[in-house]
């Protein structure tokens, strides 16, 4: 899906990423590392979408993952707080990945 479409709406991309990050907080390390590979590609391809989300200290919106339409989830208006929790992950590889993603998304 993400590989075939040239340009997706930023709100859908942000919602998809938020869902994956939340799953990473609750899954096994090996699965979380697989998600890291997917998210790295997404963060590189849609970097402009996420620069604002990583720089916000506190998001000005509330993310609601239970809505049916990702356009109405509020993902684009909330920050990526999941990355802060993943920095405390027991796997050093995931902690290292979070550091590299934060550098990627804050580098202008």
From TrEMBL:
Question: What's one Pfam family the UniProt record gives for this protein?
Answer: CBF
Recorded coiled-coil stretches: none
Record flagged with keyword tRNA processing: no
One cellular component GO annotation, for this chain's record?
nucleolus
Q: Which domain of life is it from?
A: Eukaryota
Q: What InterPro entries does the annotation carry?
A: CCAAT-binding_factor (IPR005612), Nucleolar_cplx-assoc_3 (IPR016903)
The residues that cross the membrane are: 20-43
Where do the CCAAT-binding factor domain residues begin and end?
3-96
Could you tell me one molecular function GO term of this UniProt entry?
chromatin binding
A GO biological process held by the record: DNA replication initiation
Keywords associated with the record: Membrane, Transmembrane, Transmembrane helix
User: According to its UniProt record, which protein family does this protein belong to?
Assistant: Belongs to the CBF/MAK21 family.
**Protein name, per record:** Nuclear complex protein, putative
Record the organism: Entamoeba histolytica KU27
């Amino acid at each position: 899906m993400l590989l075939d479409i040239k340009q997706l709406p930023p709100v859908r991309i942000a919602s998809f990423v938020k869902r994956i990050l939340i799953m990473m907080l609750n899954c096994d390390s090996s699965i979380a590392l697989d998600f890291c590979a997917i998210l790295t590609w997404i963060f590189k391809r849609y970097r402009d979408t996420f620069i604002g989300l990583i720089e916000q200290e506190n998001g000005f919106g509330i993310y609601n993952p239970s809505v049916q339409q990702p356009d109405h989830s509020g993902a684009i208006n909330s920050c990526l707080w999941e990355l802060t929790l993943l920095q405390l992950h027991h796997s050093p590889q995931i902690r290292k990945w979070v550091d590299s993603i934060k550098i990627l998304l804050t580098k202008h």
